[in-house]
Amino acid sequence: xxxxxxxxxxxxxxxxxxxxxxxxxxxxxxxxxxxxxxxxxxxxxxxxxxxxxxxxxxxxxxxxxxxxxxxxxxxxxxxxxxxxxxxxxxxxxxxxxxxxxxxxxxxxxxxxxxxxxxxxxxxxxxxxxxxxxxxxxxxxxxxxxxxxxxxxxxxxxxxxxxxxxxxxxxxxxxxxxxxxxxxxxxxxxxxxxxxxxxxxxxxxxxxxxxxxxxxxxxxxxxxxxxxxxxxxxxxxxxxxxxxxxxxxxxxxxxxxxxxxxxxxxxxxxxxxxxxxxxxxxx
Length: 282
Description:
Layout: H1 2-15, E1 16-18, E2 24-29, H2 51-66, H3 68-71, H4 88-98, H5 106-109, H6 114-128, E3 133-139, E4 154-156, H7 161-169, E5 173-180, E6 183-195, E7 210-215, E8 220-232, E9 235-240, E10 246-255, H8 259-281
Parallel strand pairs: 3-4
Antiparallel strand pairs: 1-2, 2-6, 3-10, 5-6, 5-10, 6-7, 7-8, 8-9
Helix pairs in contact: 1-8, 2-4
């Protein structure tokens, strides 16, 4: 645990710093090789509408790889019953499960609604790996399904840049929903970069800001620029150049306790260890 905390402390130092010119730079780049590479088009019959389950699957792979002592092979495992766990065919099999009526309801609705995504993903995780995960989300959309009420940990409103950045920095698993016109697309978020040149906390288009992600359309890494757009009432939304979209939902999962709390605990343990050594020398 202490080693994990020290590692996270190093990550914090590296990822949040001032530039040589003195303005803040927010930069966290996750290990892309830890994520899944499922491509939604490889899911038979209904894969063309399966970006929601696919983004979740690629996140499950990250959680298993990043926290093997917590999740082991519980999230993916040998879903196709061929005796070999965590293969590409297992990813497809779990996506089929997630898209069913007990979880995200993607197959019946021919899409994945924001509330079905959040509710269904948590329901699946708690079934296969109960009581080891903590959740948080920011969701612009209203919840209208009484059978799937909004959890208390879902915050109503536009997702904020600091939510995305801090959750990635704390080694959380994060998915986002992009929205444009009458369409939308889920992505597995992997990185965040922004140089706040004018120190105003608003992402301007000239401030070298972008996010990286695993795209369900390709199963591969991608990148898009981001910037803020004022929507009134003191609120801002994050826009992207991915099909001229904006981020309408963000949801994260991580082990209990959260990696960020392990950092605090590790710092406390390190202080106690230092005090103990000084006492012995005295």
